[in-house]
Design goal:
Elements (H helix, E strand, L loop, with lengths): L2 E9 L5 H15 L3 E7 L9 H7 L7 E5 L7 H16 L3 E4 L2 H9 L4 E5 L5 H10 L4 E4 L2 H11 L6 E3 L23 E6 L8 H10 L3 E6 L3 H11 L5 E5 L6 H5 L4 E4 L22 H8 L4 E4 L2 H4 L9 E3 L4 H13 L1 H18 L2 H18 L2
Parallel strand pairs: 1-2, 1-4, 2-3, 4-5, 5-6, 6-7, 8-9, 8-11, 9-10, 11-12, 12-13
Amino acid sequence: MNSLFYISRSTLPSYAANSVHVMKMCQAFSRQGIRVGLSATHPRGGEYANDDSIFQTYSVQPLFELFMFKYSNLPARTEFHIMSSFRNARRFGSDLIYTRLPRAALMGELLGWPSVIELHHPGSDITMKAYLRVARKPIIVVITEALKTQIIADLGCNPDCVIVAPDGADPMPDGIQPILPPAGRRRLRVGYLGHLYKGKGMEMISLLAPRCPWANFEIVGGRQGDVEKWKSSLGEEPNVRFHGHIPHSRTAEYLSSFDVALLPNQDFVGVSAGNNLNISRWTSPLKLFEYMSAGLPIVASDLPNLREVLTHDVDGLLCPASDVDAWCNALERLRASTELRSRLGKNAISIFKRKYSWDARARNLLDAINQRLNSGC
């Protein structure tokens, strides 16, 4: 394989984690020595960002080619985007289609391209089953073992066609300076990075803050409406500070300011405000790997998909998702022991470097894809 075309409907730039994922993966695929093209969408309304500013926003090198589409309100906008992407893929000379859109994977196979579909939650049964029928060598990439089990059960596909590849992160850049001043003597700076949708964890943080007055809770990320909602809900909680959305290129400055990082996913995790899709069982959160890359001690929910990455008391502390006493106790342990914080953080960064960088993910995926294409399923 010499070239790959990634068909995405991600908006660039945007607040969405999927936009980070596709930009980082295209950079990582390019670093493996293949030509990469990416189709994506300009934001709805406002001025269009140029390619250079998009690369800078995500701290990504311009190693691949962007094919940007104007946002459309047409009823068939997804189909229009997909067909336009295939015209670009043909001109680009792509050997392989890679996508997170089941319809694009199906169409790619019908047009004669080997097509790989990456799923982050159970896919459309009708479209995915059609893809499995027409694909000569179907390949489905998922982010957790739990999702692999569900996909196989739902679609009845050959387990050998499903590749598990957890999400990833970049190594922490050298020379990063903390953007926040020291928390103060005997205080613990507890950080959270990411969206504030239902189930992402603000429910737990809102209970922890009044019970841990010796901790500063720094909340980085979230849409303005969600930030305002949680500010109103918390009232005048003196040890909680919201920083709002920041460009992904600046996350390292905040991560380097934290003493501890939280990943308090609940039993229901939404993908956006008001969305009823529950991804709690399937998700492989980007923030988890960013915390690991920063060498932070992590307190996370004790959920099966997170246990695929973290081991309690080795590279993190795992707590029942809704047990506030357990979360308080975990933070008290970390406050009391710099040795524990150091040990967990060192283990986390060591495991990250071995397994969870974007480059490692891309390398392992390309190896697995080439093996499937050469041997079949």
